[in-house]
Amino acid sequence: MNITYYGHNSFLVEFGGKKLLFDPFISGNGMASNIDVNSIEADYILLSHGHQDHILDAESIAKRCDATIISNFEIVSWYEPKGVKGHPMNHGGKYTFDFGTVKYVNAIHSSVLPDGTYGGNPGGFVIWNDENCFYMACDTALTYDMKLIPLMCPKLDFAVLPLGDNFTMGIEEAVMASSFIECKNIIGCHYDTFPIIEMDQNKAKTAFESKGIHIHLPKIGETINM
Ligand code: NI
Ligand code: MN
User: Fold this and answer.
1) How far is the CA of 9 from the centre of ligand 1 (A)?
2) Contact 1, 23 (CB under 8 A)
3) Element (H, E) at 71
4) CB 31 within 8 A of CB 6
5) Helices 171-180 and 201-209, interaxial angle, to 10°?
6) Parallel, antiparallel, or unpaired: how do β-strands 158-162 and 185-189 relate?
């Protein structure tokens, strides 16, 4: 499975023969100036919550690629009048798409759209098919609800966790989250984009590796195979 990092919480995951794009915030991210947003292809765009640093490029990419937005009911409803098709979900629900099953899980955060529209409850995604399963935590605090993931879903091959602190959990809580979700293969994100979420990468590596957890901190534009 190929995973390309576009900075912040933006990832393209090639899964089940489809291109799944998560939380595209590229044109507004000075750290991602090496990425040409117009060259990104997506079949589905998965949005975790309504904040600008997660949805900025979703409309333009969805229209250019005729992609379907998967998000909570409120966010999908906000995109419908803009001519963007979507599939609404809510917490605790799962649905099987043509690439695999998506479960929309809890995230402890907030969610409002850029024009002030209520953005529903923020979430994360667990996605699986017969071969693989992964978790995109997206913006969240550490929560005991993460312990439900191994009880409800197939064994995780990897998980993407925020590390930058301040707006989300930080390194220490992300290490605990890895234990809650029973996953020893972690990709870190949501750090260094803004000065208040700057992170010491060596500190992160040491914190995870001392617990026997493999941590990947891909460069922006890098594709890794998991
Ligand atoms: Ni946010
Ligand atoms: Mn964010």
Assistant:
1) 10
2) no
3) strand 68-72
4) no
5) 30
6) parallel
The CA distance from 177 to 188, in Å, is 12
Q: Looking at the domain that runs over 2-225, which CATH code has it been given?
A: 3.60.15.10
CA distance 173 to 184: 14
What element of type H or E holds 80?
A: none
pLDDT given at position 63: 98
Q: Residue holding tokens 């576009």? A: 6
Q: Which residues contact 181 (CB under 8 A, 6 or more apart)?
A: 135, 146, 147, 149, 150, 156, 159
C-alpha 130 – ligand 1 centre gap (Å): 31
What integer is the mean pLDDT of 98-123?
Answer: 98
Cα 138 to ligand 1 centre (Å): 8
Average pLDDT over residues 209-224: 98
Question: 35: burial class by Cβ within 10 Å (0-12, 13-18, 19+)?
Answer: buried
Percent pLDDT > 90 in the chain is 100
Ligand 1 centroid, distance to 199 Cα (angstroms): 17
**How far does the centroid of ligand 2 lie from the alpha carbon of residue 139, in Å?**
6
Per-residue pLDDT at 20: 98
The environment of the single-atom ion ligand 1, i.e. residues with CB closer than 5 A, is 51, 139
Q: Which two tokens stand for residue 185?
A: 């293969």
